[in-house]
Structures are given as C-alpha cells and as structure tokens.
# Entry
Amino acid sequence: MENPLSVNIGGLLLQNPVMTASGTFGFGREFEPLVDLNRLGAVIVKGLSRHPSPGNPPPRIVETPCGLLNAIGLENIGIDAFIGDKLPFLNQYSSAVVVNVYGERPEAYADVADRCEGVDGIDALEVNISCPNVKAGGVSFGMDPEAAAEVVCAVREKTTKPLIVKLSPNVTDIICIAEAVVTAGADAVSLINTLTGMAIDIHSRRPKLGNVTGGLSGPAIKPVALRMVWEAARAVDVPVIGIGGISTAEDALEFIIAGASAVQIGTATFTNPGVTMEVIDGIQSFLNQEGIGHITELIGTLST
Ligand SMILES: Cc1cc2nc3c(=O)[nH]c(=O)nc-3n(C[C@H](O)[C@H](O)[C@H](O)COP(=O)(O)O)c2cc1C
# Structure
C-alpha cells in the first residue's frame, strides 16, 4: 500500500511533508536523543557557504512576543567540513538531507552547488536568497526578480539535484519573485524566510542585536507566511514549501490547504524539540478523521 504521507517536491521524494527549517536544527546530531531521525521528511541543514564564515557580532538572538529576532549572519563551517564531518552522521538515517546554500555572489552560490554535485548523500539543494542578516548576498538577491534569477541560473548550471529556492517575505510582490526563480530553473520554492525587524534597550538606547536589525520568526509571522504561500501557490506550477511560525499539526495543515506540498518547522523546535514528530502524527490523524486517503488530495483545497 502506498504511504499516505509521501510527497514529491520537484523530484525530491519525501516519506512525509515535514522538514526541519535551516538554521534551527544544526546538522541533526544534537536532536538525536529527542527526535527519531528516521521519521522526518527531510533535514534541511544550516546555511553553508563555500568557505567557513564567522557570522555577526553578539548579541545575536532576542525574544519578542510570540517570536524570535535573530541576526546570526550565516555563521557556518563551510561546505567541505559539512561533507567530511557532518554528512556521514545524517546519512545513517532515512530522512532526506537538503543542503541550504548561501554565497555572496551568484558564482559563490554556484561553487557550493558544484561541490555538492556527485555527493550521493545530499538529496537536494535549497538556495537561500532571503537572509536579512548579511551585508552581501542573501536578501539583496531575493528582493529583485532579475538578481534572484541570476543566482538561480548560476546554480542550475552546476546541479542536477532538485533545486528549491527560498524566498524572502521582505518584498512587495512575492508573485513576481516566485515566477522569476521558476523561469530560471527552480524545481520548487520555499517560503518564508524571516521578516526584518529590530528591538531596542531603552536604558542604554542601543539596539538589542549586535547587527542592529534581525529576522523575525515564530508564531508572530504565521499569518503573513500563510498569505504569501497561498499567493505563490496560485502563481507557479512547481511545488511550494510552507514555512513560518508552524508549531502544531493544525498550523501545518493550514499551509497544506493553502497550497503547500510540504512544510518546514523552525523556531518551534527551540521550545519543543520533538515538535516535528507531533506534527507528522497530527497530519496522519487528521487524514484518518477526514477519510482522506493521501495527503496530495488535501494540497491546495482552500475554498474562498
Ligand atoms: C536562529 C535561526 C537561524 C536561521 N538560519 C537560517 C539559515 O542558515 N538559512 C536559511 O535559509 N534560513 C535560516 N533561518 C530561517 C528559518 O529557516 C525559517 O525560514 C524562519 O525561521 C521561519 O520559520 P519559523 O517561524 O518556523 O522559525 C534561520 C532562523 C533562525 C531562527
């Protein structure tokens, strides 16, 4: 019998639609005692560049009502160290592995993709053109359709793996960016990355984050994310992955009904490390209760 939760995200076959969001699950090892790493749809690892990067000065995290502001600035160990030291651990498990890619220029993104090509344990790439916390690259590509397409073309030339492009909510028109990256060769789009925000210490009259501004995530952003996923899913004919404030199965189901073929869970993992397992179980229970034989029958069924 076919697995009722299986989904195909632009050639990336997942046993269920629940993935970990980049930057919130490290490289999986810390979660081993808390999460069954054989049960996730996919682990999306921390954003990786061609060479290691130190990230932003501290403080880098501030809590806000119903959310989190972070300005990590894509601190990472670089793609070589990931492939050599971290990937073998993840490949012991049956969850798919997706590498989140970051570069300061289109060629730098392409270099990371090139390094991943031929590495069997990497199942797909997610290109991050939406990080608000770096001076070069990141959201500067994600806010302009032409710049976004340039990055995607450069990566597409170097990879045969399924290519997911992660979009920024810090734009006026998500549809034109989504259309541009699909035309440039994206197999799927994921959204949203964090919303740019800030917080101030009134006594020192200084920003609470070392980087001054940061990216807002968590339940506070869910309604914005849901609206953007709904808009993008109607506009493009590739699978859409919903991200933003998901902390329960009901949240995930809202995104799926809005048109997402899969979801990612980030900030909720910090307060409830096993949240992904609860969401997988909750989606399955909902299908049973509603008499729905396969998850794909639910995707994009919103009636307005
Ligand atoms: C601490 C932290 C680090 C993050 N690092 C990355 C990253 O390296 N690459 C990326 O594409 N997104 C990164 N994100 C964004 C998340 O993957 C996700 O898009 C965002 O947090 C919204 O989902 P959530 O509300 O479920 O957390 C990071 C988010 C947080 C909170």
